[in-house]
């Protein structure tokens, strides 16, 4: 299976940030590290926090679901930059968002010049445009377009 590059991991880490303590993300889910959603059975495990090294390990584990989704939903060749941007998108929004998106359809039709604009459609939480999501989607769109 294909894996995200260090460049892609840096992008995710930049936008997820790092917290050594449990916090509620923008959707109200308990989270720790670099965007790790805490499962009910993990509550006690992270009560005392997490080290950055453990958070890095968790991120690499968590990102595998996004890697698998991108690999299975995209059926055309793509560059590392394109893969990394799609994995970041999928890590943030979930495989369902990628699956039902026009972004995926355009990638699979190899309409690569139209893909960056599709990233920018995914900047809302509820009906509110989120500045952090605008920055993230722009960064993903730029990365997608790199050679």
- Spatial strand sequence of the major β-sheet: 1-2-3
Low-confidence stretches: none
DSSP helix fraction: 40-55%
Strand content: 5-15%
CATH class label = Mainly Alpha
The Rg value, from CA coordinates, equals: 15 Å
Q: What is the chains' assembly state?
A: single chain
What this model shows, in words?
The chain is mainly alpha-helical. The chain has one domain: Lysozyme. 54% of the residues lie in helices and 11% in strands. It contains 7 helices and 5 strands. It has a 3-stranded antiparallel sheet. Strand 2 and strand 3 form a beta hairpin. Helix 2 crosses helix 3. The longest helix is centred in the middle third of the chain and has 22 residues. The radius of gyration is 15 Å and the shape is globular.
Q: What order do the helices and strands come in, and which of them pair?
A:
Layout: H1 6-16, E1 19-24, E2 30-33, E3 36-37, H2 52-73, H3 80-93, H4 95-100, H5 102-108, H6 115-119, E4 124-125, E5 128-129, H7 131-145
Antiparallel strand pairs: 1-2, 2-3, 4-5
Q: Which keywords apply here?
A:
147 residues; mainly alpha; Lysozyme; 3-stranded antiparallel beta sheet; 7 helices; 5 strands
Briefly say what this structure is:
The chain is mainly α and 147 residues long. The chain has seven helices and five strands; from the N terminus they run αβββαααααββα. It has a three-stranded antiparallel beta sheet with strand order 1-2-3. Strands 4-5 form a two-stranded antiparallel ribbon.
